[in-house]
């Protein structure tokens, strides 16, 4: 009778992360995942918009530098290029500041969503108050969260285990038939 019972392994309901010696627990409940995904998509949208802005600046810089008149003297051309480079350097600095601003405003509350109140501040402090390091920590967390939420991977693993059990059963049956002969 127990041979007909199909055992279904239950996926994890939480993930644990050791960050700077402290263990943080991330719930995989639907309610938690929905809040995490919504907040993470908002962060990604802000970052993508800022990265697109920087790409546009690079394109405009190249375009302006390429528009130096052929009739301009070397000194005039150098002066023009200097002014253009100076202008865009300031714009790139602003875009880089915007990137860090997004991190400071979004990452710590996001970590609070992931792990609970004050987790963002704790992790930021553990990272030496380096928002780029916090971004990397979030990246590792999201890779692991997405890995755990892959239904296809779970189903593939389950199918592999069934194939292994089938092969073992067929191998065992073959051994038994050889023993009887």
Task: Outline the structure in words.
There is one protein chain. By secondary structure, the protein is mostly helical. Helices cover 74% and strands 7% of the residues. The protein contains five helices and two strands, in the order ββααααα. The protein has helices at 30-65, 74-115, 119-126, 131-148, 151-180, and strands at 14-19, 22-27. It has a two-stranded antiparallel sheet. The protein is elongated, with a radius of gyration of 28 Å. The two termini are 29 Å apart.
Topology:
Elements lengths: L13 E6 L2 E6 L2 H36 L8 H42 L3 H8 L4 H18 L2 H30 L1
Antiparallel strand pairs: 1-2
Helix pairs in contact: 1-2, 2-3, 2-4
Which keywords apply here?
181 residues, disordered C terminus, single chain, mainly alpha, two-stranded antiparallel ribbon
Q: Give the % helix.
A: over 70%
What's the end-to-end separation, in Å? 29 Å
- Number of helical regions: 5
Low-confidence stretches: 174-181
Cα radius of gyration in angstroms: 28 Å
| Strand composition percent | 5-15%
Q: Assembly type of the shown chains?
A: single chain
**Shape summary:** elongated
What is the strand arrangement across the widest sheet? 1-2
Order of helices and strands: EEHHHHH
Number of strands: 2
Mean of residue pLDDT values: 85
Characterize the largest beta sheet: strand count, sense, and whether it forms a barrel.
2 strands, antiparallel
Structural class determined from secondary elements: mainly alpha
């Amino acid at each position: 009778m127990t041979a007909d019972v199909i055992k279904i392994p239950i996926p994890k309901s939480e993930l644990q992360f050791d960050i700077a010696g402290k263990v943080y627990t991330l719930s995989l409940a639907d309610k938690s995942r929905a809040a995490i995904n919504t907040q993470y998509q908002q962060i990604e949208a802000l970052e993508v918009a800022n990265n697109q802005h920087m790409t546009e600046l690079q394109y405009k810089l190249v375009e302006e530098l390429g528009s130096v008149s052929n009739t301009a003297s070397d000194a005039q051309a150098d002066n023009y290029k200097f002014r253009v480079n100076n202008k865009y350097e300031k714009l790139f600095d602003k875009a880089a500041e915007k990137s860090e601003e997004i991190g400071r405003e979004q990452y710590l509350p996001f970590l609070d969503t992931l792990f609970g109140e004050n987790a963002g501040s704790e992790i930021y402090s553990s990272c030496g108050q380096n928002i780029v390091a916090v971004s990397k920590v979030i990246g590792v967390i999201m890779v692991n969260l997405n890995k755990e939420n892959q239904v296809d991977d779970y189903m593939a693993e389950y199918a592999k285990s069934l194939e292994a059990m089938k092969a073992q059963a067929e191998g065992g049956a073959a051994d038994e038939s050889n023993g009887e002969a």
